[in-house]
């Protein structure tokens, strides 16, 4: 009996084995099918992504930003004021490509060259986004054989830097440059550049500020006197240039540990770079027995002394400070250098100092780098840091709760009844022909209250109101939006009356 049971069990097991293997085979087939379907779905997903239907986080690239109409209104106002100062000093404007051949930019910025944005090879041309407007200007002068020009240039530049939005430091930003190219007597064009910075900062009401000045020849002579090897002058200048952001001990540590200076030489440098003042400091340094051994240092001091005399004539001396810590790390500077610094804090955040808002200097050898015969064109210029200025002014406006007009509309044409869109359009045409800035509602039958509320919301100074009665009598109602006072005016006299009222509004400072 037992033997029979075992035989039956073995037989049943042998009969079940093919079913088990069949199940296993089906299971494997189903897994393969699943993997194939998953692969198809992944491929479909990638195709969807390529067509632009992918869901992703919308944002601007790091170090860039969009600008709202209110921000653009501030920017336009600032740029217009800066341009008016440039034009007052006889400048004309140019433009250059947003990218240059990489070899044009290479070797012009010292340690900052690592911040240049390189582009992909395009047909054998190795290109880079422009780092500033000065090197492209020098290339422009050399290429076009120009030896005399006074120009301004306002355009975007690009730096692969660590952005700081709060301090107005971006990777894409505007520069406003003013430069004088040509062979002139010493320090006369340089003094005018300082005067231009002085005028711009006063025009924008960014007081108090100080314009620091120094001279590259003086810096070289000072480093020579202190025992710095000539091949390290530029790298040490880059370290000194950090004194506006870092304490002397940090800069000294960098000189010793990274620039391989001895502590004794670093201490000698520290005795000079912590000095600042005016004419008296120049006279004291001209009596310094160690410093006057350097011909370069003496030339620099004499140039600074002459520049201070011209600054007094131009009325800028009250804001100028001779500061030996000013180095400006760019390699192309050859003479006087200067930098404007806002004193105090950014009003949008009392704990953040805005710092430098303009800088520049003399660069007499830069054009020669692009000329086949090494023909130099002496140049001096200044760059206005408009992004930092925008940050300060936007902060002031937020703090003051002042309303900013984002349009320049002078007159709004409104109607009091329905179905008068044709009459509105006729009147708009008349006013546009008279060069007024005019707006109207795009609805056929807008409510009068909605139209008048639009005028108040956007600070439009005047509204012209049409109704059936006014059309029949050839008159309009002219409304002063701020006071809501209305007066009836003949259509034939409307243009003259609008001009008179707009002039009065501007003179009273309410527009």
From TrEMBL:
NCBIfam families: hisS. SUPFAM superfamilies: Class II aaRS ABD-related, Class II aaRS and biotin synthetases. One of its GO terms (cellular component) is cytoplasm. Belongs to the class-II aminoacyl-tRNA synthetase family. It catalyses: tRNA(His) + L-histidine + ATP = L-histidyl-tRNA(His) + AMP + diphosphate + H(+). This is histidine--tRNA ligase. Its EC number is 6.1.1.21. L-histidine binds at residues 132-134, 159, 175, 179, 328, 332-333. Residues 63-393 form the Aminoacyl-transfer RNA synthetases class-II family profile domain. PROSITE patterns: AA_TRNA_LIGASE_II. GO terms for molecular function: ATP binding; histidine-tRNA ligase activity. Keywords: Aminoacyl-tRNA synthetase, ATP-binding, Ligase, Nucleotide-binding, Protein biosynthesis. InterPro entries: aa-tRNA-synth_II (IPR006195), aa-tRNA-synth_II/BPL/LPL (IPR045864), Anticodon-bd (IPR004154), Anticodon-bd_dom_sf (IPR036621), His-tRNA-ligase (IPR015807), HisRS-like_core (IPR041715), HisRS/HisZ (IPR004516), HisRS_anticodon (IPR033656). GO terms for biological process: translation.
